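user: can you give me the structure for this one chain? tokens are fine.
assistant: on it. calling the predictor now.
[tool input]
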Amino acid sequence: MQGSNRFLDDMSKLMTNAMGVAQGAKTEAETAMKGFVDRWLADRDFVTREEFDAVRAMAQKAREENATLAARIETLEAAAKPVVKPAPAGRRKKV
């Protein structure tokens, strides 16, 4: 019986080592694939989600500032309308 237990122990160690190697290969393949995808995306000038969100927030702020400034300009223009006096009817320029 001692011999079969040793065989099972050796098989168990072999399977454990094989699983470790497989796990290492899986991790290495994932790392290589991630690097490939990152390089591919960088070559195509895609933006990250963080960059997109930052630019979107800046555009929203600019739109709000433009609306505020447009309202302010309207108020100033309405307040500064010049009063035009009509020219006297009896006077004409000589040509």
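assistant: here you go. DSSP finds two helices and no strands in the chain. Residues 8-43 form one domain.
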